Beta-galactosidase
Amino acid sequence: MKKIKTLLVLGFIIIITYSCNQHQEKVRITKDFTLDWQFSLGDHPEAVRDSINSDDWRKLNLPHDWSIEGEFSEFNPAKPEGGALPTGIGWYRKEFTLNEAWENKVITIVFDGVYRNSEVWVNGNYLGKRPYGYSSFKYDISRFVKYAGQKNVIAVKVDNSEQPNSRWYTGSGIYRNVWLSVTNKAFVNYWGTFVNTPEITQNRATVSFKATVNNTFESQKKLKIITRILNDKLEEVTKGEEEVVIASGKSKDVKFSLVVDKPKLWNVDHPYLYSVETLVYSNNKLIDNYTTPLGIRSFEFNAQKGFIFNGKSTKIKGVCLHHDLGALGSAINKEAIKRRLVSLKRMGANAIRTAHNPPSPELLQLCDSIGFFVQDELFDVWKKKKVKEDYHNNFEEWHVQDLKDWIVRDRNHPSVFMWSIGNEIREQFDSTGIEITQELTKLVKELDTSRPVTSALTENEPQKNFIYQSGALDVLGFNYKHEAYEDLPNRFKNAKFISSESVSGLATRGHYDFPKDSTQFWPPAHNQPFNGNEDFTVSAYDNIAAYWGATHEDTWKTVKKLPFIAGMFVWTGADYLGEPIPYPYPARSSYFGILDLAGFPKDVYYMYQSEWGNEDVLHLFPHWNWKEGDTIPVWAYYNHADKVELFLNGKSLGVKSKVGDELHVSWDVPYAAGELKAISYKGATKVKETSVKTAGLATSIKLDASKSTIQPNQKDMVFIEVTIQDKNGIMVPDANNHIVFEVTGGADIAGVDNGYQASLEPFQANHRNAYNGKCLLIIKSNGKEEAVHITASSPELSSESITIKSN
Ligand code: GAL
């Protein structure tokens, strides 16, 4: 009897599993197509042929950026503004065979982004060209590919030789991922769905969903389309079903309105993600499945109250980010993007502006899952150029295609909450701006009406701003000039506002000058030359900014107190390659970041953390290695407390509190070596204690790895922070020791950096000078399932080793 019972239960389990699996069966294949490519710099028109001798071509995996591998020179055509690295023309080739079973399938190759002017051939057949380096695009290659074990060849020409074509570093090459999508002949279009949530109450959310289904079979097809909403455990919460008949060679939009009871809302603190699974059946056989992300959330901009998200007034605490990843160049890597986002999230930032172009899909996936609002931006120029060879050359022919591809790719991400059609566009100053703004906005609205359209403007006089005069923008973005924010509602009646870009403060991590003036602007008034430091550094006291900007503190104070300003995007969250204001070459990367190029926080990170974040903050700076007798301005950022007491070598230097809207406290301290300690209090209760100590001679190296294991998948990365310390474990604040790395086992070196904006050392090397006590080693899985052994050594220091396990 017991046996029978067990058998019955087992049978039941099998039936359940079987029916669940039926639903989970995947017929669509999306294959990572980044491994085993060949690359050769220079022009190789012969590479489109099936058989060429490419033995001397380099073997590599994508994503790849050849610029970052090059040598810095002020004479490189991209100029220091573009990062001072080489550009030019390069070719990629890959030989591949296709699975026999795919012979009657639709094969699509998808490029997430190629910088720039890509041209693609498969087996000698020309597929097309794509000038804009930030657009994702795809080609149906079904009719060009061969089966029966025959070799196929894909060749990609990348031409980044017309220079300068950007105001910042772009990178060169197939710098984002490539996918091979394999579907049956009736399928949901790649980027062919659209989900949004028009009505949300506590009890129910209406989810409106549309899928564009294609029929490329030779005959008409009757298809059953099932759309299921799954929760974050992939359990079905609701579903809908439709039958459609689609003629051969045609497509149809299939629409659903579904209801989710008691919806869990997506917000930046709890980014709850549902997903929508679309199943296509023909004669009861599953022939396609397509997954669309879904976050249920509502928001609006209000002329008086700013930004209201899920019914709550919410300040947008954002940062602008360019797409490069420092030492990795623009070659995207999800772990590297994640490292940066996690650090900014910890600081309390809740929003990213993708300056000034569509980001990688991975950035949006991470913003969906980590919890960031994204202002997704399309262009830095329209028809009027900013630099000689920029996108103005392509605007006329390509803007419609680029805009459409941008929206359909990104419109299902819950993180994306605004479309920006341009940054500081020149056409704002003349009447041609009216028509172009109307056209671009109309194109956006044809594909998505659920998000406002904005543009980042500089002209804040209504009669002089023609983008504003188009009447087409839903929200006005203003860059800089925060002194005028208070008056904006008088100038632009009933408008909704966001500070789309602000600050442009300058700093070098760990470098401090002691000026008398509290704030300096670059360039100085009356066109005087900028008398900077000989070593191209900028002080980190948040007292130097580009003249069009302001200090971090002044800007945030203004935005904080004005409820009608929805929020702000700081220029920038992280230093980026290129635009090395205020210095000429050898400066070659920006000084604007809250994080330096290696991802290390500058001091102002903690100002934001004290204002925006949740953690208790007490940050004291500068370091404590000065000349006896000097007077040192000592600053502290703090929160969750009402006062801070400072001690030098145990002796109190007094208690200070932030007064009014102040964002830090400070003391002038006559220097004496030893320990400077701060304690914050709420009433009589101690909240936090911190100290900086005088470091002695550098004796050793400390290695801190971002994680203890690495996946053997040829993609995973680990970031190892290298600190030079004295015999007591105190960081030596001016240490610049030359560190040599040895990495063996399951990973290779992917990059090294130290955050110093004027370093001309290569990013792809096994050595680096520390800068102000620190440098960074980035390692990347090489696919071997082996532990990684890392040794860092330097002539005068005891060396240090760590092991990262394979998992
Ligand atoms: C802004 C511009 C940014 C960057 C910044 C530097 O005007 O939008 O792209 O150039 O200035 O301060």
